[in-house]
Amino acid sequence: MIADRLAFAVALAVEAGALALRMQSGLGPADAKSPIDFCTEADRAVERLIRERVTERFADSMIGEEDGGEASDSVWVVDPIDGTTGYIHGTPRWCVSLGYMRAGIIELGVIYAPVDDRLFTARRGQGAFLNGRRIQVSHLRHQAVPVVETGWSERRPFAAYCALLTRLNAGRIEFRRHGSGALGLAEVAAGLNDAYVELHINAWDCLAGILLVQEAGGHVNDFLADDGLVKGNLIFACTPELVERIGPMLDGLHEVGR
User: Fold this and answer.
1) Is the pLDDT of residue 87 over 60?
2) How far is 50 from 188, CA to CA, in rounded Å?
3) Is there a contact between 109 and 210 (Cβ–Cβ < 8 Å)?
4) Considering only CA atoms, which of 193, 96, 187, 92 is closest in space to residue 142?
């Protein structure tokens, strides 16, 4: 049953990514949800495609970024295009993200970045993979300065984000911001960066990535606590060697800028 859903999710992510690529050259004006958050007709079309395929194949519910939905004991959590700003600007930094939960547990995660044809997959208890090759977190094998990707949204004050960067800098930790939480988490799983932190992220941006990091041997905070599936939450994912180093830097940030 889960194996069937994994094969389905892989095929669907590739199909959805191909649709997004076809639509990219003919995009009309984007709708601004906020000054830093956008939605295009491609976002809506890709989400409709995914919802149609899920409905045709399974009696599952679905929560999508654009059209919402209701949770159930068997639910897909979907971001049709994570990194829409990158998509609009023609960069490769965007992806399709599909997570599947059963009875409140993340069972599957699939993230597909069409431009560079990177397919990240994970099934609970069976490891994480990039294009069929098993991946794992960095374990700081590079012996260099740790690199953390950070995300920010207007759901948290900009001052809190700046405070986080200040703490990372003081702790001699390098940071980046690339605009896709899903890919940031996938790259933690693949050892391409050492941690991902965002003070508030929605479930559709991170559910698949959470499982990827866990199955690649990494640490992830309890994102689903306090109704994170519906309300979103802080996300902190890292190679285990950074848990005690970065974790304390997050203390009290929820009060900054309020």
Assistant:
1) yes
2) 26
3) yes
4) 193
pLDDT at 32 over 50: no
The beta-strand segments (E) located in 49-94 are 61-64, 74-82
Question: Following CA atoms 157, 158, 163, 164 in sequence, which dihedral angle do they give, to the nearest 10 degrees?
Answer: 90
Helix axes 203-215, 181-189, angle to 10 degrees: 0
CATH 3.40.50.970 fits 147-255, yes or no: no
Q: What is the pTM of this model?
A: 0.93
- Fold for domain 2-134? Fructose-1,6-Bisphosphatase; Chain A, domain 1 (3.30.540)
Return all residues near 58 (Cβ < 8 A) that are at least 6 apart. Answer: 5, 8, 74
How do beta strands 233-238 and 219-220 pair? antiparallel
Distance CA 228, CA 29 (A): 32
Rounded Cα gap, residues 218 and 26, in angstroms = 39
